[in-house]
Amino acid sequence: MRRELKVGETLREQKAIVSIDNLSFRYASSKRYALKNVNLEIYEGEFILLMGPSGCGKTTLIRCINGLIPHFYSGEYSGKVRVFGVDVQESSPEKLSEKVGTVFQNPENQLFCLSVRRELAFGLENRLLPPPKIKQIVEETLEKFRMKHIADKAPYELSGGEQQKVAIASILVMRPKLLLLDEPTSNLDPISAVEVISFLKELSSEGISILISEHRSWLLAPIVDRVIIMDNGHIVLDGSPEEVFYNDKALGIGIEIPPVVEFVKTLSRKIRLPKNWRPLKVHELSEIAKYVSPIKCDSLPQSPPIKAEGKTILDVKDVWFKYEGGDYALKGVSMKIFKGDRVAIMGSNGAGKTTLIRAIMNLVKIEKGSIVFNEKIDLTKLPTSKIARFIGVCFQNPDHQIFSETVFDEVAFLLRNLRYPENVVRQRVKRILTMLDLDKYAESSPFMLSEGERKRVALASILVGDPDILILDEPTLGQDRFQKERLKRLLEQLTLQGKTIIVTTHDIEFSLSFFKRIILMSNGKVIADGSPLEIFTNENVLRSANLIKPDVVKIRELLKDIGIGTPLHLSPRDLALEIISTKGA
Predict the structure, then answer these.
(1) Tens digit of pLDDT for each residue in 355-403?
(2) Per the omega criterion (within 30 degrees of 0), is the bond before 70 cis?
(3) What contacts 256, CB < 8 A, 6 or more positions away?
(4) Where do the domains of the chain lie, and which CATH numbers do they carry?
(5) Rounded CA gap, 487 and 424, in Å?
(6) Does the predicted TM-score (pTM) go above 0.85?
């Protein structure tokens, strides 16, 4: 819940700790402004959610507050930014960091020690805390973040999600007065994300000010004091969660609104609901029984087991692998993927999902088992360069795949390397860039784009090669709602062309709305394989995979419990539309 205030007290009666006046900024390598005439004040103790479509200026705003702009990133800068009364142009990022902590979107940008334990201790040592106190804080943090089992591992040995948890923890141990977080849970499984947000809530209750850029609105809407929405470098909405998410403008911008809000807003188009009724949590929907009559919706029957369809294009049998000096990351993994399949592989951070991809591409040498493509090609005996001709992989961190000076050259590299005629290269690259809404960045440096935009550049560089199987590692990270819908349409188009799609993801809503089949992994093993409904209504399986029951499933269950019925859908909008279509009002 949100921070308790004394009677008559408001957060904004206090002095602003951040004051931004008419701020505009354009990166030196870009022709367009990342921020335009931004005015903003942040007050002591506020917990603020910052949202907006990919590339809208969220990361740039955070960089302006912590002093990386203008001291590290150069460009055209105008306006004033004061943090704790200090003009950031007259201070330095190092000085500001004494009061301002920043968790970056890419954890690799801030991890450099030889072990997780040393990473957590580094900042405390620089503040000259007594060694016994440092040890106490580090051990408590390792326990709180469930990281004791990786305490002595090097950060580069960890999965992307585990690295993100370490980066967050290394900043939170410092207890800054203002905490800036740029998509801090994007690499985390849902339970880890909930744990991080719960810790942030504790910090907020202690008076620490928090500004968090995050796409998972359902996670933060019930607990933050304020929501700020940006679009095209401007602040377009600023208010309480109820004011912002129930504003029609929010949906049109392309942000992810909470499932509860989407359900209620869709329902209110045809059913008269009180204007001041603006729930944010699932349990608050029980009030809906006052306004909606029971409807005849049969409970959804148990989904039949998924049957093998068509040709087996990828056959993974009893695969075992362990990293040097570590435990087994893959323990007898087996799965059959069929031509034209749409499969999501889900599980907790460190479950073995990324390692499985590396094994398929022969980037790691398995100790036992087999991986066969198209029923005849043994991938364990082929170099990665040859496997890449028919299996395209887009890894979680786009910066591991991007190296060209412009977006166009990045996407064109593969075709040029294969000696395609330049007119064919230009035609195919232009088509792919338009498809992924990247054509406006064709001559821009990919390194100056947002992480979400760089993810799309990496995807474009793979799609241009027309692989038989497309493997995407966390493709929705940093993507707004419009970009996710665009990605879904693209993947649907590819499956109609006979392509096979395999995605590793923590994005439950994306999985529910797009995939026919979900494979769950935990501790290096496959623990479940079934339809989205089978998986996400099985609490024991979800718990084993460190997943949580999504809000839309909770809404279905609540509707059944209060006697309205059980609509046969797994999206908030479609749940509401079915209630409307049965005229249950």
Answers:
(1) 999 999 999 999 999 999 999 999 999 999 899 989 999 988 888 889 9
(2) yes
(3) 51, 215, 216, 217, 218, 480, 481, 509
(4) 16-256 (3.40.50.300), 261-301+553-583 (no CATH), 312-550 (3.40.50.300)
(5) 24
(6) no
